Amino acid sequence: MRVAPAGGRRRKVALAPGHSHLDWMRLTATLPRYRGPTAHTLAEVGAHRSRGDAWTIIRGRVYDVSRYLDFHPGGAAMLLTGSGKDATALFDKYHPWVNIEAMMRGLCIGELVDDADTSKAGEKQAPSRLAGQKKAPPRPADSP
After folding, report:
1. E strands, the chain, where?
2. From the centroid of its chain, how far is CA 40?
3. In whole angstroms, how far apart are CA 52 and each of 69, 89, 129?
4. Contact present, 116 and 86 (Cβ < 8 Å)
5. Sign of the Cα pseudo-torsion (84, 85, 87, 88, in order)
6. What are phi and psi of 26, to 5 degrees?
7. Rounded Cα–Cα distance for residues 42 and 140 (Å)
8. 34 in helix, strand or coil?
């Protein structure tokens, strides 16, 4: 049984035609895997908080959710609430049953590193974790 978050029912918005969950899953199946830098700092993520450039952190992974804004059932404004910061608690409050790895396939642009590790930001290496962060499960290898 699902329980509504504190404060009552969740509010959903009417999505434009072609913006259903199934449409999103079809789109993400065609997105290429991100091949850029894999380490991002909290300060770097914080600079991406606009509708056209929205990054968020969920369970230690950094996602560019800009393409997902118009597909979010709660509306773009709700998704932008968690942009530019660690939105793990907010995500888990409303979506504890959602598999973020499958839902945001192709939008993961890296992992979060400590601000002290800024020399590592932008490099392809195993980043350190922030204290208290849950370690994300390993990603499956890209298929050829």
Report:
1. 39-41, 49-50, 53-58, 61-64, 108-113
2. 13
3. 9, 23, 28
4. no
5. positive
6. -65, -45
7. 25
8. coil
Amino acid at 107: L
Tokens matching residue 58: 């969920």
Task: Count CA atoms closer than 13 A to 23's CA, side-chain side.
Answer: 12
Q: Evaluate whether 98 touches 87 at the Cβ level (below 8 Å).
A: no
Global pTM value:
0.71
Measured distance CA(128)–CA(106) in Å, rounded: 22
Residue with tokens 């800024």: 118
Owner of token pair 């789109």: 27
For 33-61, the pLDDT digits (tens) are 766 668 999 999 999 999 999 999 999 99
Encoded tokens for 130: 């922030």
